[in-house]
Amino acid sequence: MVIVGAGMAGVQTAVALRELGWREGITLLGDEPHPPYDRPPLSKAVLLGQAGSPAVDVRFDVDFEALGVDLRIGVRAQALRTADREVVTDAGPLRYEHLVVATGAYPVALPGTAGLPGVHLLRTLDDAAALRPVLDARQRVVVVGAGWIGAEFATAARQAGCEVTVVEAADRPLAGALPALVTAPMRTWYEEAGVELRTGLPVSALEPGAVVMADGSRLAADAVVVGIGARPATGWLAGSGVQLGGDGAVLADDRLRTTAPGVLAVGDCASFPSARYGERLLIHHWDNALQGPRTAAANVLGGDERYDPVPYFWSEQFGRFVQYVGHHRDTDTLLLRGDPATASWSACWLRDGRLVAVLVVDRPRDLAQARKLIRRSAVLDPAVAADSSVPLMSA
Ligand code: FAD
């Protein structure tokens, strides 16, 4: 059993295999130089530690030795030879009977900016460590991209006392993920936190000490943090017979099997067809990297489990706890519960009268109830669902 990628999904695959009774060897490869660790704190607690204080420990609480897992860190898979059932690594070839691909995603950089001093991405522990001094020195920061990571980094940087500007090519934050009605109140979150948000203008270049916008204007920046999305880290699978989609994700089936015999894929690197939502989903969130591995491990052990989760994620931004459960399309009916100008509210999406997704801002009860309702495809009365004084369960 070989698992490539020692992030959340790879580690959880190893843990699930042992829990479900896999008795043979497990080799877990990861190309980072650190013991496996959790990513969500990297844009939150890890950035906020004070200079000189002990670093937040983000390592997974897993005893790999006790689990009988041969963990090989600092080893990169370079290619896959499915005909020989062999992973080519920079430390030599490795045979497998079963292989789980869990190589996650890599952050997208602005073209031509790789290695420029003062330009940061935020994906790894090393990225977060490189950003700590920026916050400690209260530098002037420009964040490129008002997505989840951009908002979380801006939150931390403001809290540390940095002057922060967020620039976004779209006309609003989170334009790729949420409709305008839901993102409109988020502008105020930036304002209240003292973050300048500039939307509707792309960055044309980065220069030492400045971000140049498409209209020629320049924003002074001691540091630039680029948060414009992530792509599946699947380049090493080119030509292997493991089929990839146009988005670069491994095209897994509903059992998380790939097109190559004995090869499964989990987490940020793989998409899968969802019968629940009637489309293929590529999910770049933590819960998917936790749930998928259980199904993959069960199927390695001879099971025939379908993977069709109700997706879930959270984000902590500008003092708010934002949670989302389900999956919506632009064509679904959107209802607001509560006033988005207030501290807590929700948004619900209905398809053919059935609840398919909910976003909550500091309304944990709606989230808990929505999760149950979505699982059973409950039909809601739109008028009642839009009334925030009535529990969602009663709608
Ligand atoms: P990864 O965590 O990317 O792990 C894959 C591992 O494989 C990496 O260590 C990578 O270096 C390694 N690898 C890649 N290629 C190779 C190779 N060829 N050979 C060997 N190893 C390789 N989600 C939420 O729901 N809520 C949050 O608040 C949240 N916050 C986040 C904050 C940050 C800063 C980031 C970056 C992500 C956040 N996420 C959050 C998303 C969540 O962390 C990811 O969905 C999750 O880490 C995916 O796990 P994974 O194991 O699939 O991929």
UniProtKB/TrEMBL annotation:
Domain FAD/NAD(P)-binding: 2-290
GO cellular component terms, A-Z: cytoplasm
Entry cofactors: FAD
Record's keyword annotation contains Amino-acid biosynthesis: no
Record-annotated Reductase C-terminal domain positions: 312-394
Chain ranges passing through the membrane: none
Keyword line: FAD, Flavoprotein, Oxidoreductase
Coiled coil spans: none
InterPro entries: FAD-oxidoreductase/Apoptosis, FAD/NAD-bd_sf, FAD/NAD-binding_dom, FAD/NAD-linked_Rdtase_dimer_sf, Reductase_C
Protein name per the record: NADPH-dependent 2,4-dienoyl-CoA reductase, sulfur reductase
Organism: Actinacidiphila paucisporea
